[in-house]
Amino acid sequence: LPFKKVIAVFSGLSLCILVSVLDSVTVATALPTISSVFHAGSVVSWVPSAYLLTSTGFQPLYGRFSDIFGRKAALCLAMSIFIIGSLAAGFSRSIIQLIIFRGIAGAGGGGIVSIAQIVISDVVSLRERGKYQGIIGGVNALGYAIGPLIGGALAENVSWRWCFWITIPISVFTMCVVVFVLQLKRVEGDMCRKLLAVDYIGAALTLIGCTLVLLPVIWGGVTFPWMSPVVLAPLLSGVLVVFVFCFWEWKGARLPIVPSQL
């Protein structure tokens, strides 16, 4: 791409990274306020945990989805799911609703950073990539620096709901940049063939494995003792599912989510 186009694309991708960082940091800052509003107590810890759980589970899927459907389509899908989840989270009337909607937002948020990194590798040469990755690191640092200030100010002076809504205008602007500025090679083929190419069994094993591994890590030492069956049983089951996933990707999948060469 020409240098001017690279700058425009990179600005949009940097905003994607900034949205992801701001969302996690501002929400974390507002957790005490949210807990007091809903009288949630320790249950409020599930607000960030639900996001972490779904974002981790869906993150490996977006890389392969971007290969099948295209980078632009996959990134727009991730941003759309994130926007819907964040918007709904701001309208939550109970802590359970908030946890569920944060899980939905995480299903989209898991793909934002990973696809942005993939697009950077597509549009920037290997020689220049280190420089742009350094700028991305600076964007991350900026998000972590201003996120707590924004989250605290919104929770104390406006409403905790704006901690979820503050990233939506940035996300919409970023989607416009992705749609109208980002120029990448389209993935040819009809939609039916693309849908058939998706490794659904691998996707299911990924989600199940991540859930079974992360849940006991979240519970351990907080909700249940580390050596309790409630923690050990899903943890060991998750390790087993990971082995099954690796075997399936090696022997069974036609288009594996994680290539066996890796």
From TrEMBL:
Its main location: membrane. SUPFAM superfamilies: MFS general substrate transporter (SSF103473). The chain crosses the membrane at residues 40-62, 74-92, 98-120, 132-150, 162-184, 196-219, 231-250. One of its GO terms (molecular function) is transmembrane transporter activity. The keyword Membrane applies. Residues 9-262 form the Major facilitator superfamily (MFS) profile domain. It is found in: Endomembrane system. Keywords: Membrane, Transmembrane, Transmembrane helix, Transport. It is a multi-pass membrane protein. One of its GO terms (cellular component) is endomembrane system. Coiled coil: none annotated. Belongs to the major facilitator superfamily. This is MFS general substrate transporter. It comes from Heliocybe sulcata. The lineage of its organism: Eukaryota, Fungi, Dikarya, Basidiomycota, Agaricomycotina.
